[in-house]
Amino acid sequence: MSERLEDIAAAMVADGKGILAADESSGTIKKRFDVIGVESTADSRRDYRELLFRSADAMRNHISGVILYDETIRQKAVDGTPLVELIRAAGAIPGIKVDAGAKPLVNYPGDTITEGLDGLRERLAEYYKLGARFAKWRAVIDIDTASNVPSAAAINANTHALARYAALCQEAGIVPIVEPEVLMDGSHDIDTCFEVTKATLIKLYDALYEARVNLEGSILKPNMVIAGKKSGTKNSPEEVAEKTIRVFRQTVPTAVPGIAFLSGGQSDEEATANLNAINAIGPHPWKLTFSYGRALQAAPQKAWSGKGENVAAAQAAFAHRARMNGLAALGTWKSEFETAA
Ligand code: 13P
C-alpha cells in the first residue's frame, strides 16, 4: 500500500468501512472485562483481541483500520504471529493510541488536559517500526454549564496539544486522528453540545493551521451533536444528523478527507442509526464513518465472556455490528436488518 499520508487517510475512510477502536488502556479494558466476569491479564486481553482481528468477514469487508494500545501492538497471537500481522493480513491498517490520558487541568476545576507530548517524537518512530501508520490522541471536553466547564483555557490547551501531536505524527509518516471528544455524560441539551462542539472545532482547526498540519493527511474523530445522557432527552437520529452536519459545515475544512465518529456511550443501535441518518442526508464534502470502541465491542464481549467455546459466537456478533455500521457509513442501513439477524 502507498505510504503517502493522503492515501493512508483515504484508505481509513474507504466506502463502507470504518475503524475499530481497540485501544482501551489496561484500566479501561479491565472495566469492560469486569462487566463480563473475565479477569484482565495479558493473556486474556490477547485472546480477546486476537478473536476480533481473526474475524475474517468483519475485518476484510468493514474495518479499514484498528487502533491498538501499546501492549497490543507488541503482542503475538497464540500461534506466534504478531497481532499487527493479523490486522494487515485482513487488509486493515494498524494504528496506535499515543496520548497518556486526560489529567485535571491545574487552576480549572472540572476541566482536563491530555498528556503525552514529551518524548512523543521518539515513541512515534518506534511505533512506525512496529507497523503503525496512523495514531490517535483523545482530548476530553466535559460539559457542566453550572461550573463554567469547559473553560476557554481548557479548549485552548487541548487543541494546542492536539496540533503539536498531529504535526509530530506527520513528521513520522503517521496519519493523525485528532479526537476532541465533547462528552455526552452530562445533563446538557443538544444545543449546548452544538455550541461547545463548535467552539472546540474552531479552535482545533486554528491550531492545526498554525502547526502547519497537512489536513489532507489527517482524520477528525469527533462526537456527534447530541443531548447529554443525564438530560433525560433522547434526540431522534434526524435531529442528531442535522445538527452534527451543521456544526461541521461551519467549522471543518473540506480538505479533511474523513470524519470518523466515536460512539461515546450511545447504545449499539443508536450509534448505528445516528451514523446512518448523517449519511442519509448527504452528499457531504467529507467521508463520514465510525471509529467505535464500545458500540462495536459490547456485543462480542458479552458473547465471548472469556470462554473459548464462545469465540465463534463472539466473532459473529462483531461481524454483525461491523456490517451494520458499514451500511450506516453508506446511509443504507435499516432497522429491519438488526432483527433479521
Ligand atoms: P467509544 O466509541 O467507546 O467512545 O470509543 C472510541 C474511542 O476510541 C474513544 O477514544
From TrEMBL:
InterPro entries from the xrefs? Aldolase_I_AS, Aldolase_TIM, FBA_I
GO molecular function terms attached to this record = fructose-bisphosphate aldolase activity
Pathway where this protein functions: Carbohydrate degradation; glycolysis; D-glyceraldehyde 3-phosphate and glycerone phosphate from D-glucose: step 4/4
**One GO biological process term:** glycolytic process
Recorded superkingdom: Bacteria
UniProt entry keywords in alphabetical sequence? Glycolysis, Lyase
Q: Which Pfam families match?
A: Glycolytic (PF00274)
User: What top-level class of enzyme does the UniProt entry assign?
Assistant: lyase
EC number(s) stated in the UniProt entry for this protein: 4.1.2.13
Does this UniProt record's set of keywords contain Methyltransferase? no
- According to its UniProt record, which reaction does this protein catalyse? beta-D-fructose 1,6-bisphosphate = D-glyceraldehyde 3-phosphate + dihydroxyacetone phosphate
Looking up SUPFAM superfamilies in the UniProt record yields: Aldolase
Query: Into which family does the record put it?
Result: Belongs to the class I fructose-bisphosphate aldolase family.
Q: Which NCBIfam families match?
A: FrucBisAld_I
Please give the name of this protein: Fructose-bisphosphate aldolase
Question: Which species expresses this protein natively?
Answer: Oryzicola mucosus
